[in-house]
# Entry
Amino acid sequence: MQATINIPLIFVAGNYLAQLIFLLYLFIKITKMKKLPMLLCLLSIGLFSQCQMTQDSLGGSISVSNVNVKSKTFSDSMEKIFFAKAIYPLIKSSKWSGVIPVANVDEKPDVSQQYKLLMEVTTGIKDTVEAKEINAAFAEVGRLLNIHIAAGIPKKNMNIIVVAHGGILKSFYNNAVYKEKYKVDNPNLALLNELRAAGVKFIVCGQAMSFLNIDRSQLLPWVNVALSAQTVLTNYGLKGYYLKNINTDNK
# Structure
């Protein structure tokens, strides 16, 4: 698909006019008239430059438009491939938590060891459109869990702590509060419950709650509250948890 823009007739005419003035300048120059040639020359150069700049600007818009169209086409194509091949070995509530199977894998994880993962999430709700969708950070937590399960690691060997701070705290609103603020049911509930059932523990930052004026009673009742996300990060880090920062704000 190609985006096209028709350049207005006035700019085409402007180019012809600039060329005509320049030819007139040459004629007057040849006939030895004074002063007028320089004035006409400046006028023709100015008019031609303005028309050229306008066309270049439009051409730039065409290029950007084409890039955007191609980017969206590529993205749509990747989505089709992903959804056609993705499997959901454990977490199924989010379509973006799937894993594409890979045949004849050479590098395999040690399925006998304990996998201690500390996932830091911050992705907030930007607008009412996003409020209707599952938070992308939660979907990524589900995908990472599915990836490990698909790799052959038993669920009992997965130890996942999710520490949340920043705007993502609003995704932990209980359904009544969420519906009051965004006019829709909280779309994250099914996925969060599925993750909890798989053993994932969620901890929210008390400092962020204060800054965002969020009361504990507004959150889902099973959410764990810490004084600060920073103490959660250091505490579990010293216990040997691998820190994974999940930033989906620029997805």
The CA atoms of residues 148 and 158 lie 8 Å apart. The helical segments are 9-30, 36-85, 136-150, 175-182, 189-197, 206-211, 229-238. The first strand starts at residue 115 and ends at 121. Confidence is low (pLDDT under 50) at residues 1-7, 60-64.
